[in-house]
Each structure stands twice: as structure tokens, then as C-alpha cells.
Design goal:
Blueprint: H1 3-10, H2 13-16, E1 23-24, H3 29-39, E2 43-48, E3 51-57, H4 58-66, E4 84-86, H5 91-100, E5 105-109, E6 115-120, E7 138-142, E8 145-149, E9 154-156, H6 160-187, H7 193-212, H8 216-232, H9 239-242, H10 253-268, H11 275-286
Amino acid sequence: MTTEKLLQDTHKVGQIMRTVDFVDTFDSLAQASVRMHENFSDLLPVVQGGKFVGVLTEKSLARAISGGMLWTAAVSDAMIDAPTIRSDAPQDEALAMLTSQPFSAITVVDHNHEVLGIIAASCFSPTALTENRPMMVGGMATPFGVYLTNGAIGAGAQGFSLVLTGFVLYVLIFASQFASRQIEEAVINQMTEQYRQVIFGFLPTVLFFGLMRFIPLSGTHGAEHQVVHAIERGEPLVPEVVTRMPRVHPRCGTNVAVGASLFLTITQIKWVASDEIRLAVGLIIWA
């Protein structure tokens, strides 16, 4: 048994339960439905004289309304019996009850049978793994790892690594343009001017992103997106979770670069005579 499991076994229900509103037997079903909605729970404890007497669930509420009961009816007319658990009970006991009972949550009470809250499976989540994170994170893949920042704090590969990333991209751009010119010179007499402009207008961009796919930086770039997704979703930063995240991020600067490259290529190449048509097509592609 791991240390984490041993510690969990010594914890009590009261340490992980969550507080919840409750209603009295004389409250209306309308009032109870509002409380249930506000609690984000499908189970609402019902008390009488301050003591727990039952629960109202989404299912019992549905049965009452479908049976013709009015929204002004008392909660006592629709509540049902349900088990409770003491706040000083061990967590394992609560988990066993949740797996054996038809309810999504169990009402937690004190020694006087007064309602303290509820406990559900989500209460067992290790909150230390999902602490508050920045809402938005920026980053860059470098040959020496990933650089991440929230605009105020930066971490990971920095300094020379960022400069080297720019140098690598410049080399790829130069190589793709050089290769495109060499190919163009080899076939310049084998195609019309219009076809040549279109093909070799796009070829440098195609070669650039093709080369990007064959260098390690491409894999680091995808990993950067996965880490950013995990941070922004508040997920635990462990390999098991991060590797499930999408490798594409909607705020990726590469998307902007691709869009700008396509826009400039479409608008500058004379594939049609009309400047307006080229501009319109370029804007559509950019969007």
C-alpha cells in the first residue's frame, strides 16, 4: 500500500465533503429546485427541526411533477429516504456506500444528525494536482526545450535557446527558397509563365513546412501545445495527462504565419488578372 493510500485511509469524510444548501420539509418544490440548481447537485438534503429526514433528487422531483404534483407543494410530499454518513467516518466507508447505493451523493451529518454537507465521488479528487493555473499561456518550441510564459513569468528554455530557434527557422526559409529556385531553373522552359508563377509562388512555403516536419523542433512544438492545453484546462502536469492533449492549439503563431504566407502568395502572384479577385480569395483563405 502506497504512502498516499495510507494517508487517504486516515482522512475523515468531513475533510473532503463539500458544503451544500438544504431545504426544510415545508419549503416548496419550486424553492427546492432553485436550491438544487444553485448547488450543481442532483441531490438536496431535507431537514425538519434542523435534523436530516430525507432527500429530494432530480429523479424524485421528476416523478412528483409527472404525477401531477404542483410546484407549490411541500418538499415533504416528494422527498425520499436516503442513507447518511457521519463526518468522522473514514473515507473508505463513504466510497463503499457510494458504490453500493443508487444515489450520486451521500448526506454528511454530525452526531446530532444535523446536515453538514454531502460527499460524492468528485470529492475524492486530489485537488493538489489541479491547482489554479493561468487562464492563458504563451510559449515557443526551441531546440533545447519549451519556453512558456503567462506574460509576467517565464519558465523553461530561455535566452540563447530563443535566438537559436529564430536562426533555425531562418535556415529553413533560406533552404526552401534556394531549393525552389533551383527547381524553377531546371523546369523554366517546360511550362507557361502563369503555371510557373503559381507553382513556384507556393513551393517555398510548402518546402518550408515540409522541412519543419523532419526536424526535432516539430515534435517539441507539438509537445508545447499539449502542455499549454493541460495548463489552461487546469489538468495535472503529468505525462499520462499531457500526452492526451491535442497537438494543435488555436492560438499557435504558426497558424498566423501560414495564413500570412498564403495571403501574400495569393495576392502577389498573377494567377488571375484582377487584383480584387486575388485580394478576396486571399482574405477568404486567411479567414
